[in-house]
Amino acid sequence: MNGLGLYFDVAHLLAGGLVLVSFMMLYQFRMYALLNFYAVHALVLSASVAWQALIQGAPHLYVTAGIALVFKALIIPVALHRIVQRLGIHRTIETVVGIGPTMLAGMGLVALSIGVMLPVTGSADILAREDLAFALAVILLGLLMMVSRHNAVSQVVGFMSLENGLVLAATGAKGMPLVVEISVAFSVLIAFIVIGIFLFRIRERFDTVDVQALDSFRGERR
Amino acid sequence: MNALLVQGSQMLLVLALAPLLTGWVRKVKARLLRRRGASVWQPYRDLLRLLRKEAVVADSASWLFRVAPYLIFSAIWVAAALVPTFAINLIFSWSADLIAIVALLGSARFFLALAGLDVGTSFGGIGASREMMIAPLAEPAMIMIVFTLSLLAGSTQLSSIVAYMIGPEVGLRISVAMSLVALVMVALAENARIPVDNPATHLELTMVHEAMVLEYSGRHLAMIEAAASLKLLLYVSLIAAIFTPWGMAAAGQGLGHYLVGGVAYLGKLAAGGFLLALFETSIAKMRVFRVSQFLSAALMLGLLAVLLLFVSRNL
């Protein structure tokens, strides 16, 4: 089927695991469990990137893996834990539609990204093709998470998981410069800080981080 | 001839071992809760006692109520005999594949639900309706697992799948891991184990399986109990055969290999029962309305496994 054997199998395992953890995040009901799964997501991402570094013989990818490990698997989840504690919102997460329809929509998105990516990238390396297909799936699942949750904190987690998908896509395609990756990582960190500040501002104004309150403030609700 | 012999001994083996597995799970659960628990042979004594007792049948029961236990028992026994336990070369596996096993289990479930409805008590009705809430999610999940495995092995026959799984070309595949998790979830739901249903209680408002069989007594109840333990044995040996096929005797091997396969099978059953008891004591039962989400997660895992396999095949 392919000439790469174990290399391909492990890459497939890790990239598929990333999609699986995205689904687990969609399935979570509790805020803390969601944050823990975000940490797992980043952990799997960093393992996947490190494996790509090993296969491609590209040492700068180890730096990317290290960034993913330190920032995304440690600092951001811990910070989000503290934000959630300060905001006092460790209750059940409200979703827009039920878990079942969200899951089905997610499956549809995965099928869509596989159906789109495999024909389009016909001539590329098989590892890159597969990584691109899974990365698009992770990105779309992150977007799905952002639209299917009312709570601003879980929307932030959705955004962060989307960014993990971008990193996966970038490592799958060979030859992305290190500068770009570092700047992407730091811009995400800055976005995270800005979002964190906004969370507290939203809470101060509206006494909640449920974004539906913003809709009614703008006069968009019936 | 050899295959026929293996098939026959396997049919008797699963029937003989099924109550022992149930007793073993109960014993381990009791020990984990620091109780002494009944002996592991207790289910055999229960079955013998039930067989000797008089069967009391409700006035409103039709003929269906009386034949359903035998139908259920025979369907599940045939299904359990189709799963390779200690040897691969079963003579029936060329005529019945994994989909046939799913169909046999589905028909057993159908008759059980009908029998629950037949007498017209409210408990039977509740049990049947809940069973039918679980079934439409558990069966597609099971079918997805079957698809994953048969895509991998290129056949829906269990012997070919097991032979593929023993072979060297399996590799490291996430689809297999996902289908393992999904199969465990489906098995928990199908056997009415703890996160879905509690096998140890009667007269609880959340019970599913026990509510349907509440009206049975005597030899009918014995058939139903035997069928329930056979079903547990079936799922444990299915998981063991597909995901831990080591030690199983292949076609044309000598008596020694069969003995090794038998000992390995006993070890797998003991380990499976222990893990089940450990899992059940460490988790709480979930609300009935969460069950659909639990099973939709299993369905999702199965679907995802098929999709990921599709990707790695099309590259």
Give me the Rg of chain B, rounded. 19 Å
Distance from N terminus to C terminus of chain B (CA atoms, Å) equals 43 Å
SS strand fraction of chain A: under 5%
* Main sheet overview of chain B: none
Poorly predicted regions of chain A are none
Whole-number total of structural domains of chain A? 1
Number of helices of chain A: 8
Query: SSE string of chain B, helix = H, strand = E?
Result: HHHHHHHHHHH
Mean pLDDT of chain B: 89
Strand count of chain A = 0
Task: Kindly provide the radius of gyration of chain A, computed on alpha-carbon positions and rounded to a whole number of angstroms.
Answer: 18 Å
What's the structural domain tally of chain B? 1
Into which percent range does the helicity of residues of chain B fall? Answer: over 70%
Quote the distance from N terminus to C terminus of chain A: 57 Å
Helices and strands of chain B: which structural class? mainly alpha
What's the assembly state of these chains?
heterodimer
Q: Count of helices of chain B?
A: 11
Which term fits the overall shape of chain A?
globular
Instruction: Give average pLDDT of chain A, whole number.
Output: 82
Structure in words:
The complex is a heterodimer of chains A (about 220) and B (about 325). Chain A has about 220 residues and is mainly α. Chain A has one domain (about 5-215). Helices cover about 80% and strands about 0% of the residues of chain A. In chain A, helix 1 (about 5-25) runs parallel beside helix 5 (about 125-150), helix 3 (about 60-85) runs antiparallel to helix 6 and helix 5 packs antiparallel against helix 6 (about 150-170). Chain A is globular. Chain B is mainly alpha-helical. Chain B has one domain (about 1-315). Chain B has 11 helices and no strands. Chain B has helices at about 1-30, 40-50, 65-80, 100-120, 120-155, 160-165, 175-190, 210, 220-245, 255-280, 290-315. The longest helix of chain B is centred in the middle third of the chain and has 32 residues, at about 120-155.
